[in-house]
């Protein structure tokens, strides 16, 4: 049997930081007179900090200087760090540990593939830093999802061919990145939003051990 590897996105998959990103972006957008809706937020999930701000400015038809751009990025992150400061293991989404523990018991290689530059501190806060054989995050990649770079990099570190990698993703951009990498994509969230994924589950409580076992087949 060939090795099957599993790559987890972080925000919105392992922990519900998507809600904190939303609050921070909304505050920033509204602060410069730009509306920010849940639908727009959906399009920012999985998208890097720089690209997210570019999109918000586009939606609001706003042009700003390089310096202002950097200031807004710093402001958003400072606000976001305030939200995640008190995170602990209680914020791990239901049944995520069950699946990670099962994969670990099967000796499956597992990696993190996140766009976030805050991934390592968050994993540390929720006590999952040691759960992964490889961690690829926003500090290691230059191209944002839907570019496959983050997942291809993770596959390389795990030494597993992309077609034998399975990605858990909550964002449209992330599902597209997984498919662009030639991997199997499991969407976590709304099936309508994540229609490009190979499978979609509302959350990890819907994923059974027999479903996981079949992925090894
Ligand atoms: C992704 C989030 O995981 O990371 C995005 O879904 C976020 O919302 C991106 O913009 C970058 O994160 P950070 O923590 O580096 O700003
Ligand atoms: Mg995500």
Write a short abstract of this structure.
The chain is an alpha/beta fold. Helix content is 44%, strand content 11%.
What can you see in these coordinates?
Strands 3-2-1-4-5-6 form a 6-stranded parallel sheet. It is globular, with a radius of gyration of 17 Å. It folds into 2 domains: 5-15 and 93-216, Rossmann fold; 18-84, DNA polymerase, domain 1 (Orthogonal Bundle), CATH 1.10.150.240. The protein has 9 helices and 6 strands; from the N terminus they run E-H-H-H-H-H-E-H-E-H-E-H-E-E-H. Helix 1 (18-31) packs across helix 4. 44% of the residues lie in helices and 11% in strands. Strand 2, helix 6 (119-125) and strand 3 form a beta-alpha-beta unit. It is of the alpha/beta class and 217 residues long. The mean pLDDT is 96. It starts with a strand and ends with a helix.
Provide the fold topology:
Elements (H helix, E strand, L loop, with lengths): L4 E4 L9 H14 L6 H7 L4 H11 L6 H19 L11 H10 L4 E4 L5 H7 L8 E3 L12 H10 L6 E5 L2 H9 L3 E5 L10 E3 L7 H8 L1
Parallel strand pairs: 1-2, 1-4, 2-3, 4-5, 5-6
Helix pairs in contact: 1-4
Bound molecules: 6-O-phosphono-beta-D-glucopyranose (BG6) and magnesium ion (MG).
6-O-phosphono-beta-D-glucopyranose binds next to helix 3.
């Amino acid at each position: 049997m060939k090795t099957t590897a599993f790559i987890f996105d972080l925000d919105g998959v392992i922990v519900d930081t998507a809600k904190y990103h939303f609050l921070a972006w909304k505050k920033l957008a509204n602060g410069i007179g730009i509306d920010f809706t849940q639908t727009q937020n959906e399009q920012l999930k999985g998208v890097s900090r720089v690209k997210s701000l570019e999109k918000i400015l586009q939606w609001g038809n706003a042009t700003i200087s390089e310096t202002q751009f950097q200031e807004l990025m710093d402001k958003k992150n400072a606000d976001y760090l305030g939200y995640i400061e008190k995170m602990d293991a209680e914020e791990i989404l239901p049944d995520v540990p069950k699946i990670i523990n099962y994969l670990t018991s099967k000796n499956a290689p597992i990696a993190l593939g996140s766009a976030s530059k805050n991934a390592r501190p968050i994993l540390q806060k929720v006590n999952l830093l040691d759960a992964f054989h490889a961690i690829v995050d926003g500090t290691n990649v230059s191209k944002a999802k839907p570019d496959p770079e983050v997942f291809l990099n993770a596959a390389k570190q795990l030494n597993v061919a992309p077609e034998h990698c399975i990605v858990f993703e909550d964002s449209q951009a992330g599902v597209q990145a997984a498919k662009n990498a030639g991997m199997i994509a499991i969407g976590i969230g709304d099936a309508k939003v994540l229609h490009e994924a190979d499978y979609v589950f509302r959350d990890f409580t819907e994923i059974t051990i027999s479903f996981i076992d079949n992925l090894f087949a």
